[in-house]
Design brief:
It contains 2 helices and no strands. With 46 residues, it is mainly alpha-helical.
Length: 46
């Protein structure tokens, strides 16, 4: 029974870590500004 509980706790912490990593490892600051500038250049070229 103890092994099952330890395994469940380990799985929970792995799950929380994956969610945390996914939430906070997004694009760096300035990414959206660069994307807008590229879009504006593409629109101006058309």
């Amino acid at each position: 029974m103890l092994i099952v509980i330890l395994e469940a706790v380990a799985a929970f912490f792995i799950f929380v870590f994956i969610v945390w990593w996914t939430m906070f490892s997004g694009p760096k600051t300035g990414y959206h500004e660069q994307a807008r500038e590229r879009q504006a250049k593409d629109d101006a070229a058309d």
